[in-house]
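To: structure desk
From: M.T.
Subject: fold request, one chain
Message: Could you run this one when you get a chance? Sequence is below, nothing fancy, just the single chain.
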Amino acid sequence: MVASNKTAVSESSNAGDTILKLVIGLLMVMLLVLQYRLWVGEGSLAETHSLSLKVAEQKEKNRLMQQGSEQLAAEVKALKTGLDEVEARAREELGMVKPGETFYLVVDETP
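Reply: Done. Structure tokens follow.
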């Protein structure tokens, strides 16, 4: 009877070892799957870093565009409120000369 108890304990120990090995194997597979997703898969660290760089780049573009918009808005406001800006523009872009003024064109001869 003692021998049969040893055999039963030994078989139960083997079954427990097998279950433990299966659980450990399953946990290892789960760990590998999660590590793969972390480093390579969708939403990985590399993809997150790449998207962060793109966001920073787009924010810089937006900032530059905002500055340009503010400059244009200031120019429009100046054109709407005062004739000085309109006159300066007409002189620069269209070559406006008022009555009584003499227009001189200076040509630079250096190539």
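Reply (cont.): The two ends are 116 Å apart (CA to CA). Let me know if you need anything else for the meeting.
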